[in-house]
Fold:
Amino acid sequence: MNIPLKKFAERGFLRGRPQGRSHFAELCAILSNASAGEVVFLDFTGVKAVNGSWLNAAIGELFRWASEERNNVFPVLTHFPVDDLDELELVAQINVQAYPVAEKPETPLHLIRLIGPLDEALRSTLLAVIERGEATGADLGAEIEEEGIGATAWNNRLKDLFDLRLLNRRKRGRRQLYSAVAGEIDFNG
Structure:
């Protein structure tokens, strides 16, 4: 699903908390038609500028909403205004969220750039899943012994990455099998 955000922009601008809250509600209504586990592209093509207040009220809230079990969609920002990446970084820091940004909306998603913080343990876990294609906590616990952590800790990391919308998951018997939303990650900082 691709959602052009230009239709929300006044004269090409997305700004202000009140406008962001209104757009958040509209985006939720649109995304209620998405399939569970679907990658949805929030396309900024034609948007001249976006500010932090709008991003926090619309995008920050949308990522929290998307991670709820009843919604379970994976937003990816595309064609994001380059001059406003610092605004996105600031909102990511405030929300302790890493926002995936792609050049263009394409599936399968090959490369995303993460804007925002991701601690070293989550970063290494994400890279381990990308390297393997898919994994369970037990798989990682058995294969990466030098970490000195067990399957439970791996499962906690995997769930955290799932909640951040960076890993998808499906059931395999009694286990949760995780796979990356994109084949390659470019970490921003």
User: Anything to note?
Assistant: The beta strands are 2-4, 13-14, 39-43, 49-50, 74-78, 99-102, 111-115, 167-172, 175-180, 184-188. The domain at 1-117 is CATH 3.30.750 (Transcription Regulator spoIIAA). Helices lie at 17-31, 52-66, 85-95, 120-132, 137-143, 151-163.
